[in-house]
Amino acid sequence: MQLALWTYEGPPHVGAMRIATAMRGLHYVLHAPQGDTYADLLFTMIERLPRRPPVTYTTFQARDLGGDTAELFKTAASDAFERFKPQAMIVGASCTAELIQDDPGGLARALDLPIPVIALELPSYQKKENWGASETFYQLVRALAKPRAAAPDPAVPSRKRCNVLGPAALGFRHRDDLREVLSLLDRIGVEVNVVAPMDATPHDLTRLGDADFNVVLYPEVAGQAAAWLQRSFGQPSTRTIPIGVAATRAFIAEVAGLAGIAVPTNIEGDAARSSWYAHSVDATYLTGKRVFVFGDATHAIAAARVASAEFGFKVVGLGCYARDFARDVREAAASYGIEALITDDYLEVEEQIAAAHPDLVLGTQMERHIAKRLGLPCAVISAPVHVQDFPARHSPQMGFEGANVLFDTWVHPLMMGLEEHLLGMFRGDFEFHEDAAPSHLGHGAAVAPPAPPADVPSAAAWAEDAENELRKIPFFVRGKARRNTERYALEHSVPLITVETLYDAKAHFSR
Prior knowledge:
Blueprint: H1 2-5, H2 12-22, E1 26-31, H3 39-46, E2 55-57, H4 69-84, E3 88-93, H5 104-111, E4 117-119, H6 129-144, E5 161-165, H7 174-188, E6 191-196, H8 202-205, E7 213-216, H9 219-233, H10 245-259, H11 273-278, H12 281-284, E8 290-295, H13 297-309, E9 314-320, H14 326-335, E10 341-342, H15 346-356, E11 360-363, H16 365-374, E12 378-380, H17 399-426, E13 461-462, H18 464-471, H19 475-491, E14 496-497, H20 499-510
Helix pairs in contact: 2-6, 4-5, 6-9, 7-17, 13-14, 15-16, 18-20, 19-20
C-alpha cells in the first residue's frame, strides 16, 4: 500500500535509466516485463525531455515464462544495436526479471557485439535508485576511462583542467546548476575536460584521465566514480557543494587551490544579492523562523546550513531518506542540537513535521503534499520532484545565482503566509473587514450590516461578565471571537452567553 502512494526512490534500474538518459551514444537494454516499461513517463512527462530515453525492453509476458526468455533478451539486444548504433551498451534486469535469473550480462557477451557492453548487477531488493545511478556511472567510468595519454609539458603554460561529475537526468535542477558551475569555473580560470554523465558520450568517458582533478557536484551520483578516479589516476576531487553564498565562496577557493592558482578577485561582483536581501529590513522579521529540512543528503545538509547561517532561520528538523549518507546527515543535525531523521517512510516524516511545528518546510515533492495538508508553507529543495520542478526558466540551486533563487523560493512563501495571516486576523475588526468604509481616507459612508432574514433565529444574549471577558481579547480578533461564540451558542441552543460559554466555544473551534 505504501508503494501505491509514494516512495522516495525507485528501484536501482531507474537509477541506471537516469544515467543512460543523461548521456548520448549509450543504450540500455533492460530485461523486463511489460509492467516495468515506464521510463518514457518518467523522463518525457516529468522532466519534459524532447526525446525518448535510450532504453530497450524485452517486454516478456506471462505466457513467455514457460519458454525461452533468454532468447528474447538476445533478440532485443541485437535489434537495439542494429537500430540505434550506440557507442556502448549497458544491460541489466528489472526487479521482476531479476527473479528469473537469465544473466543479461552473459547473454550480451555471447552476442559478441563490436562495442563495449557493460553488465549491471543491480540487486533490486536490497538497493535503490540513487545507488543504482551511482553504481551504473561507476561501472561505466571503470570500464571506459583511460589514463592520461601523455604527461603535460611543465615548460608550456596551460590552464588546469577538471572533470565535472554528477549531473544526471531526472535530477533536481541539475541542468541549471551545471550552467552556473561551468560559468564559475571559466571565471576562476579552469578548463573543463569532460562533463559527465550529462551530455557525455562513452567516447568522452575515455578522456576522463586527461583532467587534473574532478569537481563532484552530486556525491549521490558521482562520489563512487570520483573515488575510483582518485585511486586509479591520482585525481583529487572537490568536497564543497556550492549551494549558498558561503559555500560558493569556499568552492571557488577549493577549486583554485586544486588548480594551483590564486583566487580571482571580484569574481562575485554584484551577483550575490541574497546576502544583502537577507540582512534588509524586509527580511529581518524572518529571523528565528523554524524550518524543517528533509531530502537527499547533499541538498538537505546544504539547505540546513544556508537556512541557519545565511537566512537566520532556526533548524528544528533535518532528515534524509538515503541511509548510505546517514552519518553525514547525523553530523550536520548534531551541529544544530537536534537528532537526524533517517527514514524512507513518508508517514514518519509527516509525524515529525507535525510535532516540530515549523514555520517553513524544505523538502521533496512528498513534503510539499505533507505541508499542504498541515497548512504550512513549503519549498522543494531535492528530488524526488514533479513536473513543476523542471521549470522552463533558468532556476539553479548552486552558485551565486542559485543563492538568489533560494532566497526567493524560501522567503516568499513565508511573506505570503504572513500576509494571509494578517488578513485573517484583521478581517473581523470593524475598521478592516471587507465591507468597511475607507476610514483612512476620512470619508465614505458606513455600510450597515445586513439584517438577518426573519426566519433565522437571533443570536443569544451576552451576560455582563462574558462581555467583560470578550473585551480582553485583542481588537483584531475580537469580532471573530464574538461571531464564533454566538454561532456556538446558536448551534447548542444556549440562551445566555456566559464566560463558560465563551471558553467552550474557543475549545470547540480550536479543534
